[in-house]
Write a structure and sequence with these properties.
Elements (H helix, E strand, L loop, with lengths): L2 H27 L6 H44 L11 H12 L1 H9 L2 H7 L6 H30 L9 H12 L6 H8 L7
Helix pairs in contact: 1-2, 6-7
């Protein structure tokens, strides 16, 4: 289909939609088709609403694109703060970002630690805005991060060496590997009354 036939099809569709809307307005008001002034007002009204819909959709797509670009920059700042150009971030974060990028020890910490641990290790007095930005980003993706971390642990535990692991064992291993609690082994052994597993 060439451009002129697409254009004529669009014009025909618009004319059909406009005539339908005008007929609907005339029927709603109980006016005859011979009332020229009323039909003219209906045509103007329908034309304006069609233009309004066109502009509303264009503005909505611009807002969506703008929001997507903003969120991409915020995610990039969160995930790779040492690779982001300081001029591309919000002015309120620029000074802290520059200070962070100039600190070699922080850069090595970023490479060694997970993102949550890295941002938690930042001095709250020196980097309050960067920490707040990180908290905001982690709260957006917190559940996704936990799911990915758990899936990674699942893959590590269900390796070639553990082919005999049952679903219940896997559930128990995942519970132990995802918890942040550490067992008090001496209290557990004392409560058992038996200190050696061979008895």
């Amino acid at each position: 289909m060439n451009i002129s036939s697409k254009k004529s099809t669009a014009v025909a569709e618009n004319a059909t939609a406009t005539s339908y809307e005008v007929a609907k307005l005339i029927a709603q008001h109980g006016k005859p088709f011979s009332d020229g002034d009323f039909i003219k007002q209906c045509l103007i009204k329908v034309d304006l609403s069609a233009k309004k819909e066109k502009y509303v959709s264009v503005i909505a797509s611009l807002v969506t694109e703008f929001n997507q670009r903003v969120i991409e920059k915020q995610i990039k700042l969160f995930s790779t703060p040492f690779l982001v150009d300081a001029e591309e971030v919000e002015e309120s974060l620029q000074l802290e970002l520059i200070e962070m990028q100039c600190d070699d020890s922080l850069q090595s910490q970023h490479q060694l630690l997970s993102l949550p641990d890295f941002y938690q290790s930042l001095d709250n007095a020196k980097f309050p805005l960067m920490r707040r930005h990180a908290k905001r980003m982690m709260s957006l993706f917190g559940s996704t991060y936990i799911c990915e971390q758990t899936f990674s642990l699942l893959n590590q535990n269900k390796s070639r060496l553990r082919t005999r692991m049952t679903d219940s064992h896997l559930c128990e291993v995942l519970r132990v590997s995802t918890t942040k609690l550490s067992p008090d082994m001496s209290a557990i052994l004392q409560s058992r009354g038996q200190h050696h597993c061979s008895h």
